[in-house]
Fold:
Amino acid sequence: MRKMLMVCAGGLLLTANMAVAGTTTVDRKDFQVFKDVAASVGRYAQFTIFDDVSASVKDGVVTLAGKVTMPYKRDEIEKRVSRLDGVRAVRDTITVLPVSQFDDELRLRIARSIYGNSSFWNYGIMPNPPIHIVVENGRVTLTGVVQSDVDRMLARSLATQFGALSVTNDLKTDAEVQAALEKSE
Structure:
């Protein structure tokens, strides 16, 4: 049996598979590698609110998933992660979002709407704002972490007013992330 562990590092929500039955040395090493991966991706200067990356670690093998706006981001994130101590291999399943002027305009409008709203100013001043806006072929997915259900619902409401084909709200609250952390212990 496995548990999912979520860590928010600089607005980046990452998940790691950790064994339930006791904490072994391998699990501790995997967890440290996982924290290093989260920090490395969070410090990557080209990682923006329009990208979303998740990672899992098992026996030193890091699996990267998610979506980025440019191919060089996928490649550079993989290189950064592969150089981390304790990483034996990297499986990169990050996809590059298609080039689309409509998607680019939709990203910007939604970002301005969310981060321009006074309820989200405290998020917008963070070095890595925690709400990520992933747009693919006119479909929007909101990811990341917010403080409350009210913020989650307001972000979705602000994102729906620009003609997107669909808006999926995958935002987590601080309480949900904390509960996931406590379950994994």
